[in-house]
Amino acid sequence: MSAVESKIGDAAALLGVATHVLRHWEDIGLLTPRRLPSGHRVYDDQAIGQARLIQICQRAGLSLAEIGQLAAGERGDRIGLVNAKRTRIAEHITNLELADRFLAHLVRCIHPVISDCPECSALVERGSRSAITR
After folding, report:
1. CATH code at 58?
2. Where is the HTH merR-type domain (predicted)?
3. Is residue 2 a part of any domain in this protein?
């Protein structure tokens, strides 16, 4: 075996995942390591690169199903999926910023009951109007 080929355990350690994760990615068609005549998986530079791309996509918030759609889709489909994901991320950022403003105000709020505070009430009302419904 050359230095650029690894067995599943070595590849998993290199990628920082459990071996069952690599097997799962293979089972669902996201990863295609080469197989030896004995049936053992061999992870070459291409397979390691595929796995790293999967990890990057997951860190970007894509599900494994979405990653599969990206891999199999036409360019227009990929652009649509990415734009939809970016829209969901922007909505999530907006909600997190609202939550942060609310929490920052709570630290300063002098009212003993949140509902007695006009600013808390306004933030709660704005948050309920902008909440993402799924």
Report:
1. 1.10.1660.10
2. 8-73
3. no
Task: List the structure tokens of 57.
Answer: 């996509």
The tokens of 93 are what? Answer: 């950022």
Residue type, 105: H
Residues 31, 84, single domain; the answer is: no
Top-confidence residue, 9 or 106 = 9
Three-class SS of residue 84? helix
62 and 12 share a domain? Answer: yes
Domain that holds residue 51: 8-72
Give the model's pLDDT for residue 48. 96
Residue for token digits 């291409």? 46
The Cα–Cα gap between 41 and 47 comes to: 10
Is 3 a member of any domain? no
Exposure string over 85-95, b if 16+ CB within 10 A, otherwise e: beeeeeeeeee
Distance CA 85, CA 88 (A): 5
